[in-house]
Write a structure and sequence with these properties.
Blueprint (H helix, E strand, L loop, with lengths): L1 E6 L3 H12 L4 E4 L6 H4 L30 H14 L4 E2 L4 E7 L2 E6 L2 E10 L6 E2 L12 E2 L12 E5 L3 H12 L3 E5 L14 H9 L3 E4 L3 E5 L3 E6 L3 E6 L2 E4 L3 E2 L2 H6 L27 E3 L14 H4 L2 H14 L1
Parallel strand pairs: 1-2, 1-6, 2-3, 6-17, 8-15, 9-10, 9-15, 10-11
Antiparallel strand pairs: 4-5, 5-6, 7-16, 12-13, 13-14
Length: 323
């Protein structure tokens, strides 16, 4: 019987496991993919917005050759921390539902049950993309995950979205020789786009290297085009050999429900109801950590602030065990 089973081996799940283990609690992590699976899926050449010291967990220094860490720096760092701390993992194993009660839970997974006294849910938000819900949004050349631009050189590509991910993808694509159309639902590139990315994108639009349409509503995607309409221009179509719909992600609310985690009825973002002092949810013995704590407000918690949930949770579980 484990004292603590953490679901999700992202930066925050790792921080939780490490803090629990350091308090003498028998701890393991169940992860449906690889170690730090979400970051593995980020754009290949992605650079973090945060400086490295703000991404550190467990007191391990995060030395990098650059001012901002790259995706592979972070993969290397978090995987090294996990192995240095000799954390226990069940990788490539998906959590499905939770039965039992505090002190005697059974987590059902696709590879069989795992018993534990406490459960920490650190499942992030990267697995459920927001869908366009238009005909053709499930075609094989439509993706919600951007990796790198090189397969698109000389090709027409449509990027849908106006935040950091869409902005960075559009810039990389045009620099790799793709013909980029950017479709933006609102009247402007989001003011929340990082201050060093937004002017770059606006200048590429101003000089005509990226064609941008604002107040654009996508109506249909076909194998060769994205159809949309704008209030001024009416219906139109942008040629597209590939489409990146980078319009956000959601936590897996169906999974949270199967884990018995109730949303906060007072929160529009449907964030889990939890005690901010301990991160225990309304289901005793079940805790939430990291991005998942924000519900649909996926930018409320990130690594910089979410990593601090680990100490609160580990202290609360250790105190409960000591009773
Ligand atoms: C492009 C990009 C750039 C970013 N840059 C920054 C930055 O500069 N600074 C910053 O602080 N934040 C940044 N973020 C946000 C940050 O990456 C996330 O907030 C962070 O990954 C959250 O960590 P987490 O451990 O809560 O969740 P995640 O890292 O998403 O980890 C969740 C884990 O749970 C696993 N999982 C999910 N469901 C199950 C299941 N049913 N069973 C088992 N395992 C499951 C997933 O596979 C995943 O490994 C960025 C995000 C993106 C997309």
């Amino acid at each position: 019987m484990l004292d603590v089973l953490v679901i999700g081996a992202g930066p925050v799940g790792l921080a939780c496991a490490l803090e629990c283990q350091r308090r003498g609690l028998a701890t393991a992590i169940v992860e449906k993919g690889a170690l730090v699976n979400s970051i593995l899926g980020y754009p290949t050449n992605m650079e973090f917005f945060s400086t490295p010291e703000l991404l550190e967990i467990g007191g391990y220094p995060f030395p990098t050759a650059h001012y901002k860490p790259l995706r592979e720096d972070a993969l290397d760092y978090y995987q090294r921390v996990a192995t240095s701390e000799k954390l226990t993992f069940y990788l490539q194993r998906k959590a499905l539902s939770l039965s039992g009660e505090q002190g005697n839970f059974t987590l059902e997974t696709d590879l069989g049950p795992l018993p534990a006294r406490h459960v920490v849910v650190a499942t992030g938000f990267y697995d459920v993309p927001v869908r366009l819900a238009v005909p053709g949004d499930d075609l094989p050349h439509v993706s919600h995950y951007y990796k790198e631009p090189y397969q698109h050189a000389t090709q027409p590509v449509v990027v849908i979205g106006a935040k950091n991910s869409a902005a960075k993808a559009a810039l990389q694509l045009v620099r790799a020789g793709a013909r980029v159309t950017l479709l933006v639902r609102g009247p402007e590139i989001s003011p929340s786009v990082k201050y060093w990315i937004r002017p770059d994108l606006l200048n590429r639009i101003a000089e005509g290297r990226i064609t941008a349409h604002f107040n654009a509503t996508v109506t249909e995607i076909t194998p060769t085009a994205v159809h949309f309409r704008t209030p001024e221009g009416g219906p139109a179509a942008a040629p597209a050999a590939f489409v990146y719909a980078l319009i956000g992600y959601l936590p897996d609310e169906a999974l949270l429900a199967r884990l018995g985690i109730a949303p906060d009825p007072a929160d529009e973002a449907r964030a889990p109801l939890f005690d901010p002092a301990t991160h225990q949810t309304s289901r005793p013995g079940v805790f939430v950590a990291g991005t998942v704590c924000g519900g649909r407000a996926t930018s409320r918690w990130f690594i910089e602030n979410g990593r601090h949930h680990a100490q609160l949770i580990a202290a609360a579980i250790a105190a409960q065990q000591a009773r």
